[in-house]
Protein backbone atom coordinates (compact mmCIF):
# COMPACT_ATOMS: atom_id res chain seq x y z
CA UNK A 1 0.00 0.00 0.00
CA UNK A 2 1.53 3.30 -1.10
CA UNK A 3 1.61 6.03 1.51
CA UNK A 4 2.42 9.72 1.30
CA UNK A 5 2.55 12.77 3.52
CA UNK A 6 -0.31 15.21 3.93
CA UNK A 7 0.78 18.37 2.07
CA UNK A 8 2.31 20.95 4.39
CA UNK A 9 0.99 23.94 2.48
CA UNK A 10 0.72 26.50 5.28
CA UNK A 11 3.08 28.86 3.46
CA UNK A 12 2.11 28.07 -0.13
CA UNK A 13 -1.67 28.17 0.46
CA UNK A 14 -2.47 29.64 3.90
CA UNK A 15 -6.08 30.13 2.87
CA UNK A 16 -6.69 26.38 2.90
CA UNK A 17 -5.81 26.06 6.59
CA UNK A 18 -7.75 29.23 7.42
CA UNK A 19 -10.86 27.73 5.83
CA UNK A 20 -11.27 25.64 8.98
CA UNK A 21 -13.85 26.82 11.52
CA UNK A 22 -13.81 25.68 15.15
CA UNK A 23 -17.56 26.26 15.32
CA UNK A 24 -17.98 23.03 13.36
CA UNK A 25 -16.79 21.05 16.38
CA UNK A 26 -19.57 19.72 18.59
CA UNK A 27 -17.46 18.59 21.53
CA UNK A 28 -14.10 20.28 21.12
CA UNK A 29 -10.91 18.66 19.87
CA UNK A 30 -8.02 16.61 21.19
CA UNK A 31 -6.31 19.84 22.24
CA UNK A 32 -8.78 20.11 25.13
CA UNK A 33 -8.14 16.53 26.21
CA UNK A 34 -4.36 16.87 26.02
CA UNK A 35 -4.31 20.21 27.84
CA UNK A 36 -6.46 18.82 30.66
CA UNK A 37 -4.24 15.77 31.21
CA UNK A 38 -1.03 17.77 31.07
CA UNK A 39 -2.51 20.17 33.62
CA UNK A 40 -3.41 17.29 35.96
CA UNK A 41 -0.38 15.03 35.66
CA UNK A 42 2.69 16.84 34.38
CA UNK A 43 5.21 19.36 35.57
CA UNK A 44 5.55 22.87 34.28
CA UNK A 45 7.34 22.63 30.91
CA UNK A 46 5.56 21.61 27.72
CA UNK A 47 6.86 21.49 24.14
CA UNK A 48 4.16 21.84 21.46
CA UNK A 49 5.62 20.45 18.21
CA UNK A 50 3.84 21.70 15.10
CA UNK A 51 2.01 24.19 17.29
CA UNK A 52 0.45 26.26 14.52
CA UNK A 53 -1.43 29.19 16.04
CA UNK A 54 -0.97 27.92 19.59
CA UNK A 55 -4.33 26.32 20.33
CA UNK A 56 -2.80 24.11 23.03
CA UNK A 57 -1.19 27.13 24.69
CA UNK A 58 -4.58 28.80 24.99
CA UNK A 59 -5.99 25.80 26.87
CA UNK A 60 -3.15 25.00 29.27
CA UNK A 61 -3.26 26.18 32.90
CA UNK A 62 -1.39 29.41 33.54
CA UNK A 63 1.24 27.69 35.69
CA UNK A 64 2.47 25.65 32.72
CA UNK A 65 5.43 26.98 30.73
CA UNK A 66 4.67 26.44 27.05
CA UNK A 67 7.25 26.32 24.26
CA UNK A 68 6.07 26.16 20.65
CA UNK A 69 7.84 24.88 17.56
CA UNK A 70 6.63 25.02 13.97
CA UNK A 71 8.29 24.62 10.58
CA UNK A 72 6.06 27.16 8.81
CA UNK A 73 7.22 30.80 8.64
CA UNK A 74 3.61 31.84 7.98
CA UNK A 75 2.37 30.11 11.12
CA UNK A 76 5.32 31.46 13.08
CA UNK A 77 4.60 35.05 12.09
CA UNK A 78 0.85 34.77 12.66
CA UNK A 79 0.98 33.14 16.09
CA UNK A 80 0.36 35.52 19.00
CA UNK A 81 2.17 33.22 21.43
CA UNK A 82 5.79 33.15 22.51
CA UNK A 83 8.29 31.61 23.10
CA UNK A 84 8.07 30.06 19.66
CA UNK A 85 10.84 28.45 17.60
CA UNK A 86 10.93 28.07 13.82
CA UNK A 87 12.31 24.58 13.54
CA UNK A 88 12.26 20.97 12.39
CA UNK A 89 10.39 18.32 14.39
CA UNK A 90 13.01 15.73 13.44
CA UNK A 91 15.88 17.86 14.79
CA UNK A 92 14.60 19.59 17.91
CA UNK A 93 16.88 22.44 19.07
CA UNK A 94 16.69 21.49 22.75
CA UNK A 95 18.94 19.50 25.11
CA UNK A 96 18.08 16.00 26.31
CA UNK A 97 15.42 15.71 29.03
CA UNK A 98 14.24 19.32 28.90
CA UNK A 99 10.44 18.98 29.02
CA UNK A 100 7.84 17.34 31.24
CA UNK A 101 5.49 16.82 28.27
CA UNK A 102 5.72 16.90 24.48
CA UNK A 103 2.67 17.17 22.20
CA UNK A 104 2.62 16.46 18.46
CA UNK A 105 -1.02 17.02 17.55
CA UNK A 106 -2.33 16.75 14.00
CA UNK A 107 1.11 17.05 12.45
CA UNK A 108 3.05 13.78 12.21
CA UNK A 109 1.34 12.88 8.92
CA UNK A 110 3.19 15.81 7.33
CA UNK A 111 6.50 14.00 7.84
CA UNK A 112 8.08 11.36 5.64
CA UNK A 113 9.46 9.68 8.77
CA UNK A 114 7.24 10.27 11.82
CA UNK A 115 9.42 7.95 13.91
CA UNK A 116 12.30 10.42 13.63
CA UNK A 117 10.15 13.13 15.22
CA UNK A 118 8.87 10.74 17.90
CA UNK A 119 12.43 9.74 18.74
CA UNK A 120 13.31 13.42 19.11
CA UNK A 121 10.29 13.93 21.36
CA UNK A 122 11.46 11.02 23.53
CA UNK A 123 14.96 12.49 23.67
CA UNK A 124 13.85 15.88 24.99
CA UNK A 125 11.37 14.37 27.46
CA UNK A 126 12.37 14.02 31.07
CA UNK A 127 12.09 10.62 32.76
CA UNK A 128 8.40 9.76 33.30
CA UNK A 129 7.50 12.57 30.87
CA UNK A 130 4.32 12.35 28.80
CA UNK A 131 4.08 12.31 25.00
CA UNK A 132 0.84 12.84 23.07
CA UNK A 133 0.10 12.49 19.35
CA UNK A 134 -3.14 12.29 17.39
CA UNK A 135 -4.33 11.64 13.87
CA UNK A 136 -7.37 10.73 11.80
CA UNK A 137 -8.35 7.36 10.37
CA UNK A 138 -8.44 6.73 6.65
CA UNK A 139 -12.17 5.99 7.07
CA UNK A 140 -12.82 9.48 8.44
CA UNK A 141 -15.80 11.50 7.10
CA UNK A 142 -17.71 8.61 5.44
CA UNK A 143 -20.59 11.01 4.73
CA UNK A 144 -18.33 12.90 2.32
CA UNK A 145 -15.94 10.37 0.82
CA UNK A 146 -15.11 6.70 0.48
CA UNK A 147 -11.84 7.08 2.34
CA UNK A 148 -8.71 9.22 2.49
CA UNK A 149 -5.39 8.22 0.89
CA UNK A 150 -2.99 6.45 3.27
CA UNK A 151 -0.45 8.70 4.95
CA UNK A 152 2.68 8.15 6.99
CA UNK A 153 0.76 8.50 10.28
CA UNK A 154 -2.86 7.30 10.16
CA UNK A 155 -4.93 6.03 13.08
CA UNK A 156 -4.69 2.51 11.69
CA UNK A 157 -0.94 2.33 12.36
CA UNK A 158 -0.21 5.25 14.72
CA UNK A 159 -0.15 3.23 17.98
CA UNK A 160 2.37 0.78 16.52
CA UNK A 161 4.54 3.65 15.28
CA UNK A 162 4.63 5.23 18.76
CA UNK A 163 5.22 1.84 20.38
CA UNK A 164 8.25 1.31 18.15
CA UNK A 165 9.92 4.21 19.98
CA UNK A 166 8.50 4.08 23.52
CA UNK A 167 7.72 0.37 23.86
CA UNK A 168 4.24 -1.15 23.96
CA UNK A 169 3.79 -1.24 27.73
CA UNK A 170 4.42 2.51 27.92
CA UNK A 171 1.69 3.44 25.42
CA UNK A 172 -2.04 4.15 25.90
CA UNK A 173 -4.54 4.52 23.08
CA UNK A 174 -7.80 6.46 22.94
CA UNK A 175 -9.94 6.04 19.82
CA UNK A 176 -13.02 7.90 18.67
CA UNK A 177 -15.75 6.98 16.18
CA UNK A 178 -18.68 9.36 16.53
CA UNK A 179 -20.51 12.24 14.91
CA UNK A 180 -18.43 15.14 16.17
CA UNK A 181 -18.73 17.78 13.42
CA UNK A 182 -21.80 19.65 12.19
CA UNK A 183 -21.78 21.58 8.92
CA UNK A 184 -24.74 23.93 8.89
CA UNK A 185 -24.97 24.84 5.22
CA UNK A 186 -23.45 24.49 1.76
CA UNK A 187 -20.79 27.13 2.45
CA UNK A 188 -19.65 25.24 5.54
CA UNK A 189 -19.38 22.02 3.52
CA UNK A 190 -17.39 23.83 0.82
CA UNK A 191 -14.98 25.28 3.37
CA UNK A 192 -14.63 21.90 5.09
CA UNK A 193 -13.93 20.23 1.75
CA UNK A 194 -11.15 22.71 0.99
CA UNK A 195 -9.60 22.32 4.41
CA UNK A 196 -9.49 18.52 3.98
CA UNK A 197 -8.28 18.38 0.35
CA UNK A 198 -11.66 17.16 -0.89
CA UNK A 199 -13.17 18.22 -4.26
CA UNK A 200 -15.34 21.36 -3.95
CA UNK A 201 -18.25 19.80 -5.86
CA UNK A 202 -18.98 17.66 -2.79
CA UNK A 203 -20.87 20.66 -1.43
CA UNK A 204 -23.43 20.25 -4.22
CA UNK A 205 -24.03 16.56 -3.53
CA UNK A 206 -24.97 16.52 0.16
CA UNK A 207 -27.94 17.78 2.15
CA UNK A 208 -27.37 20.19 5.02
CA UNK A 209 -27.18 20.46 7.94
CA UNK A 210 -24.70 17.57 7.78
CA UNK A 211 -23.27 15.61 10.72
CA UNK A 212 -19.85 14.08 10.06
CA UNK A 213 -18.51 10.91 11.63
CA UNK A 214 -14.99 11.50 12.86
CA UNK A 215 -12.63 8.58 13.39
CA UNK A 216 -9.16 8.81 14.81
CA UNK A 217 -6.80 8.09 17.64
CA UNK A 218 -4.99 9.87 20.45
CA UNK A 219 -1.82 8.05 21.46
CA UNK A 220 -0.16 8.66 24.81
CA UNK A 221 3.31 7.45 25.76
CA UNK A 222 5.24 7.68 29.00
CA UNK A 223 9.04 7.86 28.93
CA UNK A 224 10.34 5.16 31.28
CA UNK A 225 11.73 6.40 34.56
CA UNK A 226 14.75 4.17 34.23
CA UNK A 227 16.50 3.75 30.94
CA UNK A 228 14.97 5.98 28.24
CA UNK A 229 13.57 4.87 24.90
CA UNK A 230 16.04 3.67 22.29
Question: Could you describe the 3D structure shown?
Answer:
The chain is an alpha/beta fold and 230 residues long. It has a domain at 28-178 and 215-222: 3-Layer(aba) Sandwich (Rossmann fold), CATH 3.40.50. Helix content is 25%, strand content 26%. The protein is built from seven helices and seven strands. Strands 3-2-1-4-5-7-6 form a seven-stranded mixed sheet. Strand 2 (65-70), helix 4 and strand 3 form a beta-alpha-beta unit. 38% of the residues are buried. The mean pLDDT is 95.
Key terms:
globular, alpha/beta, 7 helices, Rossmann fold, seven-stranded mixed β-sheet, 230 residues, single chain
Strand tally is 7
Terminal-residue CA separation: 28 Å
The coarse overall form would be globular
Low-confidence stretches: none
Largest sheet: 7 strands, mixed
- Strand proportion, as a percent range, falls in 25-35%
Question: What's the pLDDT, averaged over the residues?
Answer: 95
Order of helices and strands: HHEHEHEEHEHEHE
Q: Over the alpha carbons, how many angstroms does the gyration radius reach? A: 17 Å
CATH architecture of one domain: 3-Layer(aba) Sandwich
Q: Can you give the helix content as a percent range? A: 25-40%
Question: What order do the strands of the largest sheet run in, or round the barrel if closed?
Answer: 3-2-1-4-5-7-6
CATH level 1 class label of one domain? Alpha Beta
Output the structural class.
alpha/beta
CATH topology of one domain: Rossmann fold
CATH superfamily heading of one domain: Vaccinia Virus protein VP39
